[in-house]
Known about the structure:
The chain is built from 54 helices and twelve strands. By secondary structure, the protein is mainly alpha-helical. Helix 29 crosses helix 30 (569-582). It is globular, with a radius of gyration of 35 Å.
Amino acid sequence: MIDWLVIWGVTQAAGVVVYPILESLAQDAAKDYGKDFFKDCLKKVIRLPEPNLLKEAYGKALKEFLELIEEELKDAGYQEAIIKQYIPYLQKFVKREDVSAALGMAFNVECKAIDTALLVRVWTELNSPHLPEDMNWDFLSKAYIRAVKKIVQNSDKLRPIFEVQTLDKIADAVQEVAGIPPAFDLEKYAEGLREQYGNLKLESLDTTGVYYNELKLWKIFIPQNLRECQEFIPQVYELPKDRSRLLQESGQLDALELAEAELENHRKRYVEQPIRGVFEVLGDPNEVAKEVVAKYAVILGDPGSGKSTLLQYLALIWAERSVRDLPLYPLPLLLELRTYARDKQARKCKDIVSFIHGGNITCRLNQQELHEKLKNGDVIALFDGIDEVFDPALRDEVVTDIHRFTNEYPAVRSIATSRWLGYKAQRLRDAGFQHFMLQELNDEQMQDFVVRWHDLNFAEGVDKERKRERLQKAIRESRSIKELAGNPLLLTMMAILNRNQELPRDRPELYNQASRVLLHQWDVERALVEDRRIDPKTIDYRDKQAMLRKVAYYMQSSAKGLAGNLISAAQLESILTDYLKTIEVEKPREIARIMIGQLRTRNFILCDLGGDSYGFVHRTFLEYFCAWEFVWQFKESQTLTIEQLIHDVFGKHWQDESWHEVLRLISGMIEPRFVADIIDFLLEQEVDKSAFLDEGRLKKDGLSNLLLAADCFVEVRNRNTISNISSKLLKALQIELEKEFPYKFNYETAYILAKTIATGWKEISEILSWLKKRLRDTSSTFVGHSVLQVIVEVWKDDPTIILFVKECILNDDKWYVRISAVEAISQFWKDDSATLPLLKDRAINDQNEYVRSQSIESLARGWENDSDTLPWLKDRAINDQNWEVRKATVEVISQFWKDESDTLLWLKDRAINDQNHAVRNASVQEIAKGWKDESDTLLWLKDRALNDENYAVRSTSVEEIAKGWKEDIQTFDFVCDRAINDTFVRGKDQFDIYRTNPRQTALAAILEHYSDKPQTLELLKTVSNNDPDEKLKEFAKKELAKLSENPVGA
């Protein structure tokens, strides 16, 4: 009988945890723990060791590891009684197969570090007690590897097997040549990330001397949303044709070969892509391990949209953790690609790993140890700024290196960023990267930023509340300011302006101040001083503004007009040079080139869009400077008369929506009496309303002259001076809303018209009464809904409005008004004690099913966290007499309570037992959408496709199977069977012709998902000849003709 404790060198004095754990392992002779321990590290040995030799090495190594753990506990001040409590957890821990394999890797001669991330993760998964806060896993890893090497060196049997001495001598010789290798110090690397990226760099945006040292990026960062653009980057197709052709010829844009019809289909598919949270796609950095939508991703966006900030945030979340927790999470490698490209061009590095080894990512990381982490997938690679590598050939090399990196380290998650212009997607698309467009901040994200900004920058008090509300109000009440605030850079700038002064009431002055901030960044003077070839010449902000007016004026006169925001480098240089000549500077072209050169390294008010093209950092500034140029010609140089302004500017462009913002800005920058003349002109214009119908209803374009006139009116600060035109315009708007003739409005038109009247003339006391009367008198669904919504939005702070809304909920005879009132009270008066009881009452007792459905949806959305909401809703889903209400309830339960353990079973019950097919149908759709990854969902759907008595439920089941499980090897055969054998029979009732045949649904699904299969053609022929449903036969014959004209693979 072998005494393994003796062989392992373990005595009762070995330690508090070492002896009992190894004694337990020695007694468990039937279990060969050494097999798991060495399973991954024997691939390069000369010969396999004997089993007993493996067990000897296993025990000795485990003894060293446990002694190191115990030493860490003692160093942290833990008493023996506390340390003993760790014994059962450590026993379970070291017996885990993955832990054993990770520890065994130390015997691999190439091992520089064991997988500490896995060790920490498993320790956490086992619900083990906390380890010391300052426990250094990397130090423990190195000490353990050194101990293992000593075990091998001291064993005559192990030494020749692992060839340790020979390899160590080679390593020593390499080290003598290479010098001292860099360390792999995670604590130091984290400190470097915090120093380089931790603080928001706001000095260039705030010139008042305010310090923002405490404003940490990771505290203020707002996660944005993404939309997939894998096959189609929409902005590329908005470029002028001549510009896109030049970019293709210079190798900075993939070939564009979409016909107009195909282009529209791609646009539609892009818009239909779901908008997802960035962490849903890329993984939440606050979670240890989770499957992600995109393992390899490219994030595209506009300048200032937050691409770099996103990557910095992902790195900083890791860097802000305690030293003990750093190994638990993937190591973020943040590479600024412009720096990498520069070093590669200078031959300072040959690839990405050698670049990191060289120390260009805040601190040097040892290449060999990094290699181990990369192989294990314990890294997230962050490649920032493909577009910032300006040389197209060098950019292609960098993209190749990224591709090579993912091939060499396939387990590593990789994220790259680029501006969309000048980026060629095909290379990384072929390498398996998914592409996403970064979306602008939405309302909720803007609100979150504003709250955080003021919480972090102001002490509690009246000043903080006043400034926060001031900024929120500006964003809420001005469409243009809200559009500006969608860009994180510009929202930050507005927050800074708001800190130092009250935001201007009129937008032109706000844009003027914002442009001065951004122009202050564009420090041309310093660049000229640094360039010794040119004598310094002061170019102040007024000169820069004048140049930007010329640039904007040129852009609006181009083929794309104000719909585009793009100018070539050559044309930009020409405009700047021409202006510089007028102020008599020396070497104007050289100065223009220096100014443009600055745009390549930073975003000023103009920025490099990529592809040797430039534009304003936001189109708002294009519109502002364009408007200012017209006003300059009208007021300053007086080369434009009021008649020319009215007829040549407003007259030519009032029907072009892309010009409306410019025309509004002009109105805010000239005297009110001139605006009155412009409004009079617009009121006289005639619009052919029949040209602006959507399914028989009038779109807002049919009232474009009136709405633009109202927009121009609200830009006037002192409206009392033009009271006559105010009354005339108001009367014209009221007549339209009263008569709604000759065409009924669509919803957007009704809402905009009502909102225009309410906001433009709110100070007139009779306007609220007039709107209430209009609400009572209208028979129009859209007008009624819109008027009530506008009343609530504009006068919600009036204490009488909640009483008015409750009156509408209970007593208005129009169901669509009651629906609007239910929505309003749940949105604006959720905290009123009477709101929840009122909604429950209406969900049961209102006579209209749509009002009851809306009450249920509002209740679910607003009271999701109340414990009695879900049981109450389930009762409604079973006991309401109307199927519409039951269907709506099924949908909200699926949406808001998906994670409840019994929701799936409950939905399956509704999908089988509700007496109405529409409710069963909705249940099937919700299950297919929300529980696709459940193992039995596919089989359950097949049962519904075969056995539900209703054709619509069977159709939906087949459609969901084909869509969600098209890769399953049995799906094609199953759907083919349904295309032939479903039992649907079309009746002779007048409505039967509209019923969906499940066989046709199955056939359409096969054509969509399996058109390239040879069986598809035969199936079409069979159905077109033999199906008893004439409507399906006709469909099959048409599809057969299409396939004959355009055979698959031709």
